[in-house]
Structure prediction request, 137 residues.
Amino acid sequence: MKPENLVTPERQRGTVREVVEAYSRMGIHVEVELKAVPAHRLIATQNAIEREKLEMVRQLMAEGKLDIPVVVEEHFVDDDWSRYLIDGHCRTRVKIMWGRHSIDAYCIYSPAGTFPSNFVTIAARYGNRLVKDLPLV
Prediction:
């Protein structure tokens, strides 16, 4: 993977727009809020992290690059928030490795609390593992 293939602020905002538009087409009202979320409690929507990509992201972040909010989907269930990481697994893992407890995120949520989500289904298929616990491959 090349650095130019990684996320940019414009691409990240585009990802958020695409997710919101997809829910809108399904008749689901969601909103977006930029805020800090607990990095150690984010549920992964992939089954592993690529070592090579993680190292590249770590280096770029150390150089002050890739300071871009991740994308999270929030669901309020049983009096608590469940947060599913849609985009930014490597950036989140690097922040965790650096001892950070929170990460800035574009949070997509419904005022209703929860809603049908493919991301929740994918995370469940992978065992609802936290990003901090994903294996490196």
Remarks:
- The first helix runs from residue 9 to 25.
- Helices lie at 9-25, 51-62, 89-97, 118-125.
